[in-house]
User: What shape does this take?
Amino acid sequence: MRLAASSAQSMPDTTIDAETPRLAQQAQAGSADAFCALVDLHQRAARRVAATALGQSPEVDEAVQDACITAWQRIAKLEDPAAFRAWLLRITWRKALDRRRSLTGWLRRFGRGQGHGKAHSEGPDKGAPELATDHLIDPAALADQQLLSRERDLVVSQMIRSLPPRLRDPFLLAATGEHRYEDIAALLSIPLGTVKWRVAEARRVLRDKLARVGFGQERGPQGPRAGQ
Assistant: This one.
C-alpha cells in the first residue's frame, strides 16, 4: 500500500466525520477499497502529526506508510469506527517517534549529536531534523519588512528546534490548528492540563528568546487560543 496525494483537502470536516464511521465499518469487514478511502480522508492529518515529530524529512511519508500498514493489520480491533482518525494518528505518532529515535541515534553515531544525552531527555533535542515552520509564521506582507521576516523565520525555526521535546511536540501539534487540546492529550498520553501548560510554556520560552535577540516587537509563533 503506497500513499497517494490526498483528495480530502477540499472536503468539509463534517463530510469527513460522516464518512469515517461508514468506511471504517466496511474496512473492518475486509474492504481494502474502504480502507484506502479512509487513508485518503485522514492522510493530511497523519502527515502533520509525523512532521511534528520528524520535521522536514523523507521519513515523514515512511512513518505514515508504516502507520497505515499497521492500521490495516489491526483494523478489526478498532472498537469505535467513529474514532478511526484519533486511532490512526496515535499509531502515526508512535511510528514517527520510532523513526525520530533511530534518526537521532544515527546522527549521534556519526558525531552530530554527541554529548547531548538521550534523544528524549529534557534538554534540547540537538539531533532533531530541521522543522517546517511555514504553518506557524505569518510573514510580513510589506516589502520593506520581508527581509526582517525571513531572518525572523530562521531564528524562530532554530528556537523551536532547540525546545525540549516535551515542550516542542505539543506546541507544534497545537500550532497546526488541526488538533484540540483534548486530541493532543490523547495523542501524547498526558493529562489535558499538562498539554495546556506545556503549550503555554513553549510560547513563553519562545517569546523570551525572541525578545533577547531583538524580535520582541515582532509577531512570534502563535499557538492555539485558550480553550481551542
Notes: Residues 84-109 form the longest helix (26 residues). The CA atoms of residues 53 and 64 lie 12 Å apart.
